[in-house]
Request: fold
Amino acid sequence: MSTETEHQTYNRKIIVGLLIAGAFIAILNQTLLVTALPHIMADLNIDATQGQWLTTAFMLTNGILIPITAFLIEKFSSRALVITAMAIFTAGTVVGAFAPNFPVLLAARIIQAAGAGIMMPLMQTIFLTIFPVDKRGAAMGMVGLVIAFAPAIGPTLSGWIVDSFTWRYLFYIILPIAVIDLILVIMLMKNVTKLRETSLDILSIILSTLGFGGLLYGFSSAGSDGWGDQTVLISLAVGAVSLIFFIMRQMKIKRPILEFRVFQSWTFSLTTLLGMIVFALMIGTETILPLYTQNVRSISAFDSGLMLLPGAIAMGIMSPIIGKIFDKIGGKGLAIIGFAILLLTSIPFADLKDDTSITFIVILYTIRMAGTSMIMMPLTTAGINALPPHLIAHGTAMNNTMRQIGGSIGTAVLISVMSNSTKNASTTNPINAVIHGMNSAFIVAAVLALAGFILSFTLKRKVQKEGQPAR
Reply:
């Protein structure tokens, strides 16, 4: 099937298939090592602090590279970028599979993340370029499937693999898929984006790295180390100051690395904020529920991951369907219903007990993820539809960056609320204290969902058409 755009020189289905396969394995890697960390720690003789860096470094590298992708998309052809991203990711997978020690394995994760960080916003930009406005919802629904399903099956797949084989099979299984996708990309990928005259501003890259990297590391560490930790405070301070200087510089230079003028559009600003809230709630819930099942109910890590799978499947199935509904009715109604579901499911989660039915938790979480699918990609699409075509790459890069930060902030806030409430609980029973902490965290989650619900009513009802000025 050819495109309905200018030259009809590429097959849209082939491009969609190549990008979804590449993005799926790239995002899967974000959570793939979570369950395997104890095995890796034992095998490579490292402690938990070092082991955690295998996940943290992946997220940080993603967070640093994503803001730069708008510049890369304008500077280099889409074909060259997809090939480069997949080649970098594949190289990291090879290094990880045969890593003899921890430093090499950590380097492999950073290399993988460099490829993944380019891939996600690049896929969204290409989809938004090759699909007309009235079909973008369905296209972005497929992106939602990848974002929801890949990270959720990571811990489950990881748990099964490390129980049956060694942790190196986590890389062995990904490697052939990455290699096949890379070969197909080289053979079949076409250029679809327009290049613009742009130059690399080194100072902007440095400020962006310190700004977004500092904030992401600070918020991620705050969840485990506490807000008063010296490293957390320094990281947040460096991140905030660098980000201020980065924004000031982007507003001055002729060709910014990341265009902050996208926030002049009220629709884009509001949908990005709501996207941050929903991602914070999703990542926060995915963090707290396994802690409940493992620490309170003594359920294995693998079974805890398995519990989250129906929710991931529900969101994966719903995302393309919701995308088609969005194309017909817009995002306002979907967002209102979605945030209502998040609010209503947060209330029972705020009343967990030491004998709450696991089946009830799985059903509630599955409904919650269905609600999440009504918000995440529809609002992303609505926000980017409000931008003129030349700002689409900047809009997708900004949206992905803000979503990462939203997830980090949400997890940090909910985990710190949980930790402080656990310490200050008026009970001598440690299990009851932990449950009290988790219930407090879900009360905060309910407040966030309520804020999202109220803000959803201010969204515009109609989908804005391409080429209209941003409002």
Q: What stands out?
A: The CA atoms of residues 414 and 471 lie 34 Å apart. The chain has three domains: 10-188, 200-254, 262-464. The chain is about 75% helix and 0% strand.
